[in-house]
Amino acid sequence: MLSCSLQVAWKTMSKESRMKATINQKLTEMGERERLKELLRAKLTECGWKDQMKAHCKEVIKEKGLEHVTVEDLMVEITPKGRALVPDSVKKELLHRIRAFLAQHAT
Amino acid sequence: FQVNHPGDFSLSPIKPKLNVLSVMSPAGCSHVNGYKVDNWKQNLRVIYQCFVWSGTAETRRRKAKSCICHMCGAHLNRLHSCLYCVFFGCFTKKHIHEHAKNKRHNLAIDLLYGGIYCFVCQDYIYDKDMEQIAKEEQRKAWKLQGTPLLFLRIGEKYTTWEPTKRELELLRHNPKRRKITTNCTIGLRGLINLGNTCFMNCIVQALTHTPLLRDFFLSDRHKCEMQSNSCLVCEMSQLFQEFYSGHRSPHIPFRLLHLVWTHARHLAGYEQQDAHEFLIAALDVLHRHCKGDDNGKKANNPNHCNCIIDQIFTGGLQSDVTCQVCHGVSTTIDPFWDISLDLPGSSTPFWPLSPGGDGSTVNGESHLSGSTTLTDCLRRFTRPEHLGSSAKIKCGGCHSYQESTKQLTMKKLPIVACFHLKRFEHSAKLRRKITTYVSFPLELDMTPFMASSKESRMNGQYQQTVDVLNNDNKYSLFAVVNHQGTLESGHYTSFIRQHKDQWFKCDDAIITKASIKDVLDSEG
């Protein structure tokens, strides 16, 4: 079912990567991935994470100058901070949801 | 109490994107011209539908299977799709960049967010035509998804604000901007007492600090259909303008008072009134005057209004009457704006509470020296009550008059819940104020009092595992109205919450900072 190049890619992946890919497929197929994304968005807005990131972006833009800054610059600057600032409770909740979903749909 | 609802977009009066708009060329970059040939619009739509915002089960399945990097198989790493051919590649690992270079395909689309990347410009570009297609496809996919978690009850999915032409005009003509910081006190303003009008002032403070109501009025959503100048909703709108004007002198609400007297005759006059009565009367008048705001969805049924008052304050109270003989249940659901709770010490007996109801441990209130909690009052409110032999109900199942029990539960929770502690007793024998202290929490979980919880209890699931992750029935406190003194002569004040955890005491014209302890220790 996979095309030639995809089959090659699949073969070269580690076991862990293949497992990740399978889980992702399941989540996407059942629409759960979208729901989780929306849940995450809501949680991160609620706890003020989104506002913090926005403020940081503005700082970066001020530093680099509006004319010269690229999306890439912003990504590089805010990704580490963004990752670190996600509250543990949010991580826990998402994990709980994913686990529950996988348990429900175990094949 | 206001429910922790997601997407609480704090509507700061204006953060214009004018600067960004003037720099970005609306035509995007010139390199897209090579793409915009033949049937490009349809092709682009297909890409959005299949690989970015998959709305149907079929497209989701296809996306799940095929959206992996053609070089390394990963699905993460900011996957992009080439716009010119069927190729998916990681952005982070530069697989898509390699493809772009080798095949000279200079455009790719981000499968997570739908942004278009140009490899010549080396940045994401914003082409007006492509943006339009992206927006339409995203809307389509949302509609297909049904009701995802995030539809605000107002009926609109949360999107970032984009100014209309008219709004841009207004922004240009009014260049003054206000930045909302965490210790900014905008929205706080005292109210002059016009002669025993503290009962009105405390409610006004609570209403002006109800976030959804504030956002409704500050975004000018009221379209007035009343001919005269006596629309209370318009006056409310004006009131919000006064509160958020930045003026620090107390406001004199004489027009508001006059309108209230006009529309709620029973509250007219300068004697002391009941704050709770004022709240209900105010909500009622506002609800009646909101006729123009239905957005065309004219509900012929006056009980199913779509006005802002109903959307925020109206809940559904379920009443189940159970026949003691045939155990048939007759259910009715009535709308409510507030829950009036009896207190211990009144002439109607409070204790003991019947078993089968839970909740006292859920809300973590202090039971210091046996003080009554709000949850206790709610348990009493939702207990099954024997109606007695003198109040037999005609049972539809038995076709005769039988004894029955009645129980109240919450069918539908309002966004803002108002709890009224019945402190003023007006029975035939006496008129007095009950000053029993009732403790209340900062966060309240209404799950134990829901009709659905009662059903699962009846189905045998006694020990309900409290789902701490489910926020649907959780409320957070944002206003408390207090009365000091006696029935004949007293004074109303209120505590209101600003931002997440800053409390202020509103005593007519005087606003002072308050601690959470002050709030929780108050009578309520």
From TrEMBL, chain A:
For this UniProt record, the keywords arranged alphabetically read as follows: Activator, Chromatin regulator, mRNA transport, Nucleus, Protein transport, Transcription, Transcription regulation, Translocation, Transport
- Transmembrane stretches in the record are none
Per the UniProt record, one Pfam family is: EnY2
Q: What is its main location?
A: nucleus
The entry's cellular-component GO terms read:
DUBm complex; nuclear pore; nucleoplasm; SAGA complex; transcription export complex 2
User: Can you supply a Gene Ontology BP term from the record?
Assistant: protein transport
Molecular function (GO) terms for this protein are:
transcription coactivator activity
Location in or out of the cell: Nucleus, Nucleoplasm
Family listed: Belongs to the ENY2 family.
State how it assembles: Component of the nuclear pore complex (NPC)-associated TREX-2 complex (transcription and export complex 2). Component of the SAGA transcription coactivator-HAT complex. Within the SAGA complex, participates in a subcomplex of SAGA called the DUB module (deubiquitination module). Component of the nuclear pore complex (NPC)-associated TREX-2 complex (transcription and export complex 2). Component of the SAGA transcription coactivator-HAT complex. Within the SAGA complex, participates to a subcomplex of SAGA called the DUB module (deubiquitination module).
What role does this protein play?
A: Involved in mRNA export coupled transcription activation by association with both the TREX-2 and the SAGA complexes. The transcription regulatory histone acetylation (HAT) complex SAGA is a multiprotein complex that activates transcription by remodeling chromatin and mediating histone acetylation and deubiquitination. Within the SAGA complex, participates in a subcomplex that specifically deubiquitinates histones. The SAGA complex is recruited to specific gene promoters by activators, where it is required for transcription. Involved in mRNA export coupled transcription activation by association with both the TREX-2 and the SAGA complexes. The transcription regulatory histone acetylation (HAT) complex SAGA is a multiprotein complex that activates transcription by remodeling chromatin and mediating histone acetylation and deubiquitination. Within the SAGA complex, participates to a subcomplex that specifically deubiquitinates histones. The SAGA complex is recruited to specific gene promoters by activators, where it is required for transcription.
Q: What is this protein called?
A: Transcription and mRNA export factor ENY2
Taxonomic source organism: Sparus aurata
What taxonomic classification does the UniProt entry list for its organism? Eukaryota, Metazoa, Chordata, Craniata, Vertebrata
Automatic annotation (TrEMBL), chain B:
User: Which InterPro entries does the record cross-reference, listed alphabetically?
Assistant: Papain-like_cys_pep_sf, Peptidase_C19_UCH, Ub_carboxyl-term_hydrolase, USP, USP_CS, Znf_RING/FYVE/PHD, Znf_UBP
**EC nos:** 3.4.19.12
Q: Which UniProt keywords apply?
A: Hydrolase, Metal-binding, Nucleus, Protease, Thiol protease, Transcription, Transcription regulation, Ubl conjugation pathway, Zinc, Zinc-finger
Q: Into which EC class is this enzyme placed?
A: hydrolase
Per the record, its GO cellular-component terms are: nucleus
Reactions catalysed? Thiol-dependent hydrolysis of ester, thioester, amide, peptide and isopeptide bonds formed by the C-terminal Gly of ubiquitin (a 76-residue protein attached to proteins as an intracellular targeting signal)
Residue ranges of the USP domain? 189-524
Places the protein is found:
Nucleus
Supply the Gene3D superfamilies for this chain.
Cysteine proteinases (3.90.70.10), Zinc/RING finger domain, C3HC4 (zinc finger) (3.30.40.10)
- CDD domains, A to Z: Peptidase_C19D
| Alphabetized GO MF terms | cysteine-type deubiquitinase activity; zinc ion binding
Q: Which GO terms describe its biological process?
A: protein deubiquitination; proteolysis
Location of the UBP-type domain: 27-144
Family membership, please give it.
Belongs to the peptidase C19 family. UBP8 subfamily.
Q: What is this protein called?
A: Ubiquitin carboxyl-terminal hydrolase
